[in-house]
Amino acid sequence: MKLLDVLREELNLTGTKQGCGTGDCGACTVLMNGKAVNSCLVLALDAAGSEVTTIEGLSSKNGELDPVQKAFVKHGAIQCGFCTPGMILAAKDFLGRIPRPTEAEARDAISGNLCRCTGYAKIVEAVVEAHKYE
Ligand code: FES
Ligand code: FES
After folding, report:
1. CB of residue 80 inside a 6 A radius of ligand 2
2. Which of 12, 39, 76, 122 is deepest in the core (most CB within 10 A)?
């Protein structure tokens, strides 16, 4: 089974979305050992022993949202929400490496994540400003 299918169907973690199923849209992005991966391209077997973080696991134990999540809310970077979990997790990986990106760097970082609502301006703004919510 694919990691995406195990997350959604076996573990009921439906925050991770299925879009294309072929690695092209980023909707299924999760963190594997802190690195963003398309879970539709990862065999569940290959994830054995890895730490996998889905959108459900990003907030703190007391329910406080992660700074990236806060930034998306504050900047209105969510329309239908379908791309949002993948966008946030891709941004989380990226911001761990480049905490204060330029707009161009932020755009490049989410270039593998498609938003069918075309809300990119707000999403890029949220990624650039996320450090303010730490
Ligand atoms: S569903 Fe995995 S990249 Fe689109
Ligand atoms: S907010 Fe609808 S797909 Fe991005």
Report:
1. yes
2. 39
Domains of the chain: total: 2
Per-residue pLDDT tens over the stretch 47-74: 999 999 999 999 999 999 999 999 999 9
Per-residue pLDDT tens over the stretch 13-23:
999 999 999 99
Its pTM surpasses 0.90: yes
Tokens of 96: 């761990």
Spatial CB neighbours of 104, under 8 Å, sequence gap ≥ 6: none
Distance 127 CA to ligand 1 centre (A): 21
CA distance 32 to 77: 24
51 and 95 assigned to the same domain? no
Q: Which amino acid is at 72?
A: F
Do 78 and 126 lie in one domain? The reply is yes
Domain shared by 78 and 124, yes or no: yes
The CATH number of whichever domain residue 28 belongs to comes to 3.10.20.30
CA of 123 from ligand 2 middle (Å) equals 10
